[in-house]
Specification:
It is built from 6 helices and 6 strands; from the N terminus they run βαβαβαβαββαα. It has helices at residues 20-31, 65-75, 93-100, 122-134, 148-155, 167-192; strands at residues 4-10, 36-42, 79-84, 110-117, 138-139, 144-147. Strands 1, 2, 3, 4, 5 and 6 form a 6-stranded parallel sheet that branches.
């Protein structure tokens, strides 16, 4: 099977965010595979204003230079892992904004999810999956949810996520599925021209 390039997107930008930890954790696991190359994309490096373009870049080129840089970066990947928190039962606004600033760059590529928080960002990921469908992405069924006592132990008590060894099976299943879909869709995109 082909080696695919996966972007791991940290979906929060707050100074006190937790997202760096699960992003590093999933990157370390994914980097051990010989069928994936991974890169972490930090939304802090792409400080886009709230979406204020004439239209989606599917119809009109974006004017904002940071948005253009973001679109170019997003286009480099064959699939994505979104690392997200849950804010008021949905995804963080900065992540939704980043999704909205690109359109053709996301099309026909798979999306996987690593969530964290009291319910493992399950409701956030549910909304994120719906947005991904609208962006013509293929959302993965399997994901990783760092929730409840596990989240609190890592966030407040200094436990290493690696100690939650049972999460590794979920991550393996998710990465296997992500690789399969990324490979299949990469071939399909190339054959479609």
């Amino acid at each position: 099977m082909a080696k695919v390039k996966i972007g791991i997107i940290i979906g929060t930008t707050r100074a006190t965010r937790f997202g760096d930890k699960p992003a590093r954790w999933i990157k370390d696991i994914a980097s051990q595979r010989d069928d994936l190359t991974v890169e972490v994309l930090d939304l802090r490096d792409y400080p886009m204003p709230f979406f204020d373009e004439v239209a989606s870049n599917a119809w009109v080129p974006s004017q904002n230079e940071v948005a253009q840089r973001w679109q170019k970066k997003v286009a480099e990947f064959d699939g994505y892992i979104f690392v997200t928190a849950e804010y008021n039962r949905s995804m963080p606004a900065v992540l939704k904004n980043a999704l909205d600033y690109a359109y053709p760059e996301w099309n026909r590529k798979p999306a996987a999810y690593v969530g964290y928080g009291s319910v493992g960002a399950a409701r956030s990921i549910e909304h994120l999956r719906l947005s991904c469908v609208e962006l013509q992405m293929a959302p993965m069924r399997h994901g990783v949810h760092i929730q409840g006592a596990d989240f609190m132990a890592v966030w407040q008590q200094g436990k290493d996520i690696k100690e939650l060894s049972y999460l590794e099976q979920n991550s393996k299943t998710m990465l296997d599925e992500l690789h399969w879909w990324a490979s299949a869709l990469m071939v399909a995109r190339r054959s479609a021209g």
